[in-house]
């Protein structure tokens, strides 16, 4: 089990969870079951990952076998861009719950601050970037309207908390001016090549937990042939990281994760290899020095691997 972080709504969230993006559907039930056995309690899913049914199967089998109770788990999903219209938010959540086979979520994020044209579930699910036969199209809905619909889901007890993902400081500031229910967490790309120190400082000062995704930097994006990832030094082989790792008798992966958790961030490393689960979960067993933290942070190059500008020149981070 990992440490628990306090959320601004009084609930607790595990500091370490399992990222579910790209866990293949055929191994997902077994992976999730194995992860629960290994001590994972948080599962970071999303409508966009296309494996909610299989992730849910693993969760439900673990509950049925008495490994864990539902209330001991922290199950997460993310509202995809195609479902931002207030009239689509509840049906989207109901779709997620049906796929998971659960009756509530612990946390439902807005995956991106981008509203795409609605695509019916039976037309294409997950819709990904598909917006209909005409090609890319936005939905005319401002974020606060999506937010009000998410707040209603909290009131109904269908989700315990709301989160935001891939939001800039300016958008968070604006959302906080109008939100009745504050986001509990901001999920962002975060690794030594993209540190985002000011965004983290602002968000943590607002008592919103920062959750790091893609903690291993380019690694997750190599299989997608992402040019920025292909052109970067692999962080597992970066001299700064490997030196620190060997001085602590730890792996490079453990150092990358500890660098985040020691600064108060939550992490959700993904693995499809059962033998890596335990190591990724137990990264708080050693401490980095302040100097080591600084030297890792100094690798910052503002380098993103996940940027909507690359999808269709969408100015999310410009
Ligand atoms: N909100 C968003 O927009 C967003 C975007 C991206 C990701 N996420 C979330 O964040 C999670 C994590 O990010 P990510 O999946 O992009 O990348 P990640 O966790 O940084 O990296 C995953 C990659 O690292 C490998 N790996 C895992 N543990 C390892 C270890 N101990 N040693 C060596 N290699 C290891 C995995 O391979 P194996 O599978 O073979 O072990 C996989 O190739 C996602 O699964 C998803 O839940 C959210």
TrEMBL record:
One Pfam family named in its UniProt record: Aldo_ket_red
Positions bearing the site annotation: Lowers pKa of active site Tyr: 78
Key words of the record: Carbohydrate metabolism, Oxidoreductase
InterPro entries referenced in this protein's UniProt entry, alphabetically: AKR, Aldo/ket_reductase_CS, NAD(P)_OxRdtase_dom_sf, NADP_OxRdtase_dom
Active site as annotated: 49
Entry GO MF terms: D-xylose reductase (NADPH) activity; mRNA binding
SUPFAM superfamilies assigned: NAD(P)-linked oxidoreductase
Highest taxon of the lineage: Eukaryota
Ranges where the NADP-dependent oxidoreductase domain occurs: 18-300
Positions that bind substrate: 111
GO biological process entries: arabinose catabolic process; cellular response to osmotic stress; cellular response to oxidative stress; D-xylose catabolic process; galactose catabolic process
Similarity comment text for this entry: Belongs to the aldo/keto reductase family.
Identification of the protein by name: NADP-dependent oxidoreductase domain-containing protein
């Amino acid at each position: 089990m990992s440490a628990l972080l306090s959320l601004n709504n009084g609930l607790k969230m595990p500091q370490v969870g399992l990222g579910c993006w790209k866990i293949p559907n055929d191994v997902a039930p077994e992976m999730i079951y194995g992860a629960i056995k290994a001590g994972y309690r948080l599962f970071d899913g999303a409508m966009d990952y296309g494996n909610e049914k299989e992730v849910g199967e693993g969760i439900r089998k673990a509950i049925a076998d008495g490994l864990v109770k539902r209330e001991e788990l922290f199950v997460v999903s993310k509202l995809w861009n195609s479902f931002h219209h207030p009239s689509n938010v509840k049906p989207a959540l109901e779709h997620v719950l049906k796929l998971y086979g659960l009756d509530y979520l612990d946390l439902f994020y807005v995956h991106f601050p981008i509203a795409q044209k609605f695509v019916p579930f039976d037309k294409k699910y997950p819709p990904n970037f598909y917006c209909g036969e005409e090609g890319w199209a936005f939905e005319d809905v401002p974020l606060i309207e999506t937010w009000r619909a998410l707040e209603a889901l909290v009131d109904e007890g269908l989700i315990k908390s709301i989160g935001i993902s891939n939001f800039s400081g300016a958008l968070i500031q604006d959302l906080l001016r109008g939100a009745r229910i504050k986001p509990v967490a901001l999920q962002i790309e975060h690794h030594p090549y993209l540190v985002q120190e000011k965004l983290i400082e602002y968000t943590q000062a607002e008592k919103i937990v920062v959750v790091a995704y893609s903690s291993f930097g380019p690694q997750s994006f190599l299989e997608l042939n992402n040019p920025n990832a292909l052109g970067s030094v692999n962080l597992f082989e970066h001299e700064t990281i490997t030196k620190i790792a060997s001085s602590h008798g730890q792996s490079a992966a453990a150092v990358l994760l500890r660098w985040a958790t020691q600064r108060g961030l939550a992490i959700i490393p993904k693995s499809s290899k059962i033998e890596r689960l335990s190591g990724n979960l137990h990264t708080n067993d050693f401490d980095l020095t302040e100097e080591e933290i600084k030297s890792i942070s100094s690798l910052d190059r503002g380098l993103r691997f996940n940027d909507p500008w690359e999808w269709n020149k969408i100015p999310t981070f410009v």
